[in-house]
Amino acid sequence: MREHALRLLDAAGAGPAPIVRAGHPALRGVAVPFDGQLEGEELAGLLALMHRTMRAAPGVGLAAPQIGLPLAVAVLEDPGVASAEVAQAREREAFAYRVLLNPAYEPVGDERVAFYEGCLSVPAYQAVVARWRSVRLTGTDEHGTPLDEVVTGWAARIVQHETDHLGGTLYLDRAELRSLAAADEIGTRWAGEPRPVGAAEALGFALDPT
């Protein structure tokens, strides 16, 4: 694993890493737990590579399997959205860059919410996914500090999406496939709704999770 990570770092140099796409075996395997395979500067280098790759894409999260490394590491960062209406409907607040090592989540309560989401490994498409509104996130940060917190709203969606990657699950595995839309003019309109009400009516799927 260490040799694989160091090869990625060497190949990328100061730039981003290539993001692997659906069909790549790394996206369907279970990531190996991080247990010190990389030393301090090596881990810092990997995290910096993942951070600039996520930003360059651009995206709000990236898991190590998305750059072909089957290690239970993810980075997250959300600048938020300009529309106050969208931010309120999606409970989307900006949050600063953070690192998750060996993350896991479990639902808090039984409420799920459905919104469009996409994935850097499935470019040019998006679909509606019903996710837990609140989850309990556990794991550690890059310093080994334990994490045990409740995350709600869009941040919870990102946590679930990226943690799923570490178990070999893509968002399409959980999606309402009738909602699947290309990122063209129509698809961008559906994904830009505060809630995908128009998409549900036009494409014929139930919006409220059951």
Please describe what this structure looks like.
The protein has one domain (2-203): Peptide Deformylase, CATH 3.90.45. The model has no long low-confidence stretch (mean pLDDT 96). It has a five-stranded antiparallel sheet with strand order 1-2-3-6-7, sandwiched between helices. The protein is 30% helix and 30% strand. The chain has six helices and eight strands, in the order H-H-E-E-H-E-E-E-E-E-H-E-H-H. Keywords: Hydrolase, Iron, Metal-binding, Protein biosynthesis. Its cofactor is Fe(2+).
The chain-level structural class is alpha+beta
Order of helices and strands: HHEEHEEEEEHEHH
Please summarize the sheet with the most strands: 5 strands, antiparallel
CATH class category label: Alpha Beta
State the CATH topology. Peptide Deformylase
| CA-atom Rg in angstroms | 17 Å
* Shape-level CATH architecture: Alpha-Beta Complex
Task: Give the total of beta strands.
Answer: 8
- Total helical segments: 6
- What is the first-to-last residue Cα distance? 41 Å
Shape: globular
Provide mean pLDDT, rounded: 96
In helices, the fraction of residues equals 25-40%
Which ranges are low-confidence, i.e. pLDDT below 50, for 5 or more consecutive residues? Answer: none
CATH superfamily: Peptide deformylase
Using brief descriptors, characterize the structure shown.
Peptide Deformylase, five-stranded antiparallel beta sheet, 8 strands, globular, 210 residues, 6 helices, alpha+beta
Produce a short descriptive summary.
The chain has 210 residues and is an alpha+beta fold. The protein is 30% helix and 30% strand.
